[in-house]
């Protein structure tokens, strides 16, 4: 394996002070969301049973199910964020632990870090509220749109900017040719193994042939580096990644600058091959294989595969009423409550309900798009973000602009505008009920 490896148990604050190079600037932290949503209307007595929201005008073509699926009760064993999936075998649990050790490992230039990178360990950007979670960190994407065509400026180091380096001589900047600059916020990794185990056919069932509420949705088609197959993407803000192994390999080369068997070509600083040859001193690929033919990217993929879903909270009466508000506002059209995994070699992934609250499709989000095109995702297309574990993943939206769930809902546009408009017509009690529900799933 690589020459130098360290495996500390890192929390975000510690990681920032230990592993961030002195020449790098720490990303600015956004204020935490307030704990309390809007209060009930003044003078209104608290009912014993929360009233159902008043009927809202529904589009005639929207299907009206009898009721939204009932969320299952929380696990009585009180699972925590960061726990492995329940029911893992001894071998699967060991893979989870080995993968978590690599996830927390601090890379150095002698182990292949850089020469340009965004972080020196995975846990730096995935630590809240537990290892594998989200963070307030953003990365920068850039490109150029001209005559309606997006150019990622790959020859100038795009579309991902690596904001740190092992030597200031290779520091990357957004080139002046770029007229699009976007931020991407770190997303949590909880339950990704369950999402990977959802069959393509299950995702395709969410595509609407006729618009409902202006919502269609489309799948992201990608060429998967790990399998060589054309697959449906399901990971990333643009659903640009199909499998966890590809997710792992891309993160290693793009976020830490560590080449591997899937991505053996190093990123040149702003496309400058001469600088790369001068400062890249470790032979590629830098993620070498052990006697079993497994590298760090394999162990990282296994950690994500066996990482448990976000734990649910018991629904309060207000949250139970908010479940109905979630339906009547039309949120469930895109944020589909549940999908199901298919056959799988692991009993922990086989035929399981996945309460992710996403259809895993791309939607035209209008002004909420980030201006970056990736694969079959256009500049205004964004994947429906899963809502499970929402209470622990602030800030919200693709660029972290929203400190609260309320702000995130109000920023919806494009195919999400009709639901946003209904949200704006709710009274304060209905808003509270909806937020209570969202903070429980």
Q: Give me the Rg, rounded.
A: 22 Å
Largest sheet: 4 strands, antiparallel
How widely separated are the two ends?
40 Å
Mean pLDDT: 88
Category from helices, strands and their pairing: alpha+beta
Number of strands: 12
Helix % is: 10-25%
Poorly predicted spans: 1-66
Number of helices: 11
Overall number of structural domains: 1
Shape: globular
> H/E element string?
HHEEEEEEHHEEHHHHEEEEHHH
The proportion of residues in beta strands is: 5-15%
Question: How would you sum up this structure, described in words?
Answer:
With 441 residues, this protein is an alpha+beta fold. The protein has one domain. It has 11 helices and 12 strands. The strands form 5 sheets. Strands 2, 3, 4 and 6 form a 4-stranded antiparallel beta sheet that branches. A hairpin with a 6-residue loop joins strand 7 and strand 8 (230-233). The chain is globular and about 60 Å long. It starts with 11 loop residues before the first helix and ends with a helix. The model is unreliable at 1-66 (pLDDT under 50).
């Amino acid at each position: 394996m690589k020459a130098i490896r360290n495996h500390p148990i890192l929390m975000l604050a510690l990681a920032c002070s230990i592993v961030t190079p002195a020449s790098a600037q720490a990303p600015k932290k956004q204020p935490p969301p307030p704990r309390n949503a809007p209060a009930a209307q003044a003078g209104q007595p608290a009912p014993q049973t929360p009233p159902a929201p008043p009927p809202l005008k529904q589009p005639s073509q929207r299907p009206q199910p009898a009721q939204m699926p009932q969320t299952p009760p929380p696990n009585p064993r009180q699972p925590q964020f960061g726990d492995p999936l329940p029911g893992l075998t001894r071998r699967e649990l060991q893979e989870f632990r080995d993968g978590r050790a690599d996830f927390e490992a601090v890379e150095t230039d002698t182990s292949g870090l850089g020469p340009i990178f965004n972080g020196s360990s995975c846990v730096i950007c995935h630590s809240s509220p537990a290892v594998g979670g989200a963070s307030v960190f953003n990365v920068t994407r850039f490109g150029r749109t001209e005559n309606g065509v997006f150019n990622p400026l790959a020859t100038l180091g795009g579309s991902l900017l690596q904001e740190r380096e092992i030597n200031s001589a290779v520091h990357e900047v957004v080139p002046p040719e770029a007229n699009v600059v976007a931020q991407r916020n770190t997303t949590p990794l909880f339950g990704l193994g369950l999402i990977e185990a959802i069959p393509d056919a299950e995702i395709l069932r969410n595509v609407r042939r006729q618009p409902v509420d202006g919502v269609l949705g489309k799948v992201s088609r990608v060429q998967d580096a790990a399998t060589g197959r054309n697959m449906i993407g399901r990971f990333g803000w643009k659903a640009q990644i199909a499998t966890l192994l590809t997710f792992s390999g891309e993160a290693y080369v793009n976020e830490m600058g560590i080449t591997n068997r899937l991505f053996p070509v190093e990123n040149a600083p702003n496309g400058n091959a001469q600088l790369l040859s001068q400062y890249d001193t470790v032979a590629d690929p830098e993620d070498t294989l052990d006697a079993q033919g497994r590298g760090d990217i394999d162990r990282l993929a296994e950690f994500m595969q066996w990482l448990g879903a976000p734990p649910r909270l018991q629904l309060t009466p207000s949250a139970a009423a908010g479940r109905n508000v979630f339906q009547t506002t039309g949120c469930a059209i895109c944020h589909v409550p549940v999908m199901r995994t298919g056959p799988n070699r692991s009993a922990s992934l086989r035929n399981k309900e996945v309460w992710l609250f996403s259809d895993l499709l791309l939607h035209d989000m209008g002004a909420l798009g980030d201006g970056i095109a990736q694969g079959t995702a256009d500049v205004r297309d964004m994947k429906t973000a899963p809502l499970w574990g929402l209470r622990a993943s602030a800030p919200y939206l693709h660029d972290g602009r929203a400190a609260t769930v309320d702000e995130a809902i109000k920023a919806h546009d494009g195919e999400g505008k009709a639901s946003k408009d209904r949200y704006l017509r709710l009274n304060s009690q209905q808003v509270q009920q909806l937020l209570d529900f969202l903070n429980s799933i």
